[in-house]
Amino acid sequence: MSDVNFTLYEDLRNALKYVEKTGIFTWKDPVPCGRVKPGQVAGCLSKSTGYIYIRIKGRLYAAHRLAWLYVNGSLPNDGIDHIDGIKTNNSISNLRIAPQVLNQQNLKKAKSHSSTGLLGIVLDKRRNKWRAEIQANKKRSFLGYFATKEEAHQAYIIAKRNLHAYGTL
User: pLDDT digits over 104-122, tens only?
Assistant: First the structure.
């Protein structure tokens, strides 16, 4: 464990209690600042990311990364994925190490800027049909053209279940 990780690990264990089953951190006594009381739930929900963050010695950390450190004693080089896709569920049984490319397989809904609101499909205006495609192992695969966006999305879901090992749909 690097010196930085060891120091953070010690600071984390001294300041917070973590319940593996619930994924909730609470402040211990002594409390690091006067505004929080011992036993109070630690962390704030970020509206922009949907993750819980906890400040330790003036620095913000994602609670899921702190949970991993608390239980395993070190931080992984890769990302940490919430298996059920719920970003606030930091129970240790819901966390797994996942490179970003695999973590993206766990998407359950389209990004906010999606024109269709559904994963894996787009309207091909030239053909007036819905196009479905998926990416796996850095390779994009065409799934076909469909009369309705629901049919195209269903084709995407079937492919996702077959190609995305980290997917949970």
Answer: 656 656 666 567 778 888 8
